[in-house]
Amino acid sequence: MRGIDVIEGNKPASDYDWETVKKGGDTAIEKWIADQIKGRSCTVVLVGTKTARRKWITYEIIQSWNKEMGVVGIYIHGLTNSDGKVSNKGRNPFDSIRYSNTGKYLSSIVKC
Question: How many domains would you assign to the chain?
Fold first, then answer.
């Protein structure tokens, strides 16, 4: 969510803002995520090399799904970073999240 300021004129959180939120601990992060998704209809997850390993990405996906929002993942591999290295394709973050009590993973419902 932090990098998409072109959608609905959202102002992205700067790295400084994110570091400030993180200092408040898990409760502060959960509140920040709730505030970010409030009033939205969809969460877009940009799937990079390390996205699937990030705790708060998983949390945001679950919160969005539980609020019956649309959730979509978009792979962004193949981009060149500031060191000139091309990023690798990351794991699908929906592969580790189970859908309700069905035992199915969200990735069987949501395709990146």
Answer: 1
Q: Which residues contact 90 (CB under 8 A, 6 or more apart)?
A: 47, 48, 49, 50, 51, 52, 75, 77
Check: CB of residue 90 under 8 Å from CB of residue 49: yes
State pTM to two decimals: 0.78
Tell me if 27 is assigned to some domain.
yes
In this predicted model, what pLDDT tens digit does every residue of 54-106 receive, in sequence order? 999 999 999 999 899 999 999 999 989 889 999 999 999 999 888 777 778 88
Helix (H) or strand (E) holding 39: none
Q: Contact 98/105 with Cβ under 8 angstroms?
A: yes
